[in-house]
Amino acid sequence: MILSLPSKSQVSKVVPKNAFDDYTNTKQKRKFIDIVNRLTWINKLSFDTVNLKGKDVKEIQVFQLELKQQEGFNELLQIIDKVIPYHIIFCVLYKEKVLFSASQKHLNPINENQAVTDWTFSSDWEDVESNLVKVNLEKSLDFVFYDFCKQLIGDHAKGTNLFDLISYDKSVKELNKSITALETSISKAKQFNKKVELNIELQEKLTFLKILMS
Question: Measured between alpha carbons, how far is 132 from 146 in angstroms, rounded to an integer?
Answer without folding.
Answer: 16
